[in-house]
């Protein structure tokens, strides 16, 4: 029985994309599993000569090349190169960008889990208890409190800056999709993610939010430009 390599490679990429949608805001560790599955699909695609380089691949390819050169000229080149961060950090793009069908399903799954993660941030912020610990804490220990630096919400991820960055990107990504596609699910996701960004109390994410709001007038005229807005918000939060 022969294996359809082309079909199998796309199936692996699709499974990987669904895993990203589920785990990107709920489990940092599980992302590695999603990347591993997706890379197998990409390797199969390259081996079967299905992979085609597109114009939109230039920016991530340049960023990846920058990481590669920085590894070569680092203090410990071999150690840096063997970490494969120049591949690992950009693998999600190469995986998700190769999906041709059912990508709307992936986006809807992502929206649902962003909403779940946002409520995790709310719970963490107002009850000072991590969502993962909810079943191990008695009801008598649940006390409502206002968000403060004493208990910075981390959601399901365990890292306030990480979940803040995810919610920042989701605010504008789903805001743009909701604006152009007129989908209530995307608009609700954007609003809930926005509230989560504020509650994380991370200044770099607040800065990225400010940059995004200031740049909206320049992006709103074009659907393509509007979808790219989250990228520039992240750049703003890094600076």
Give, in order, the helices and strands.
Answer: HHHHHHHHHHHH
The description of the largest β-sheet is: none
Between the first and last Cα atoms, what is the distance in angstroms? 54 Å
Q: How much strand content do the residues show?
A: under 5%
Total DSSP helices: 12
Radius of gyration of CA atoms, rounded to a whole number: 19 Å
Q: Got a strand count?
A: 0
Percent helix, as a range, is 55-70%
Would you tell me the overall average pLDDT? 78
Description:
Helices cover 69% and strands 0% of the residues. The protein has 239 residues and is mostly helical. The protein is globular, with a radius of gyration of 19 Å.
Question: What is the fold's blueprint, element by element?
Answer:
Elements: H1 5-23, H2 28-47, H3 58-72, H4 77-82, H5 85-88, H6 91-96, H7 103-127, H8 160-181, H9 184-200, H10 203-219, H11 223-227, H12 229-238
Helix pairs in contact: 1-2, 1-7, 7-8, 7-9, 8-9, 8-10, 8-12, 10-12
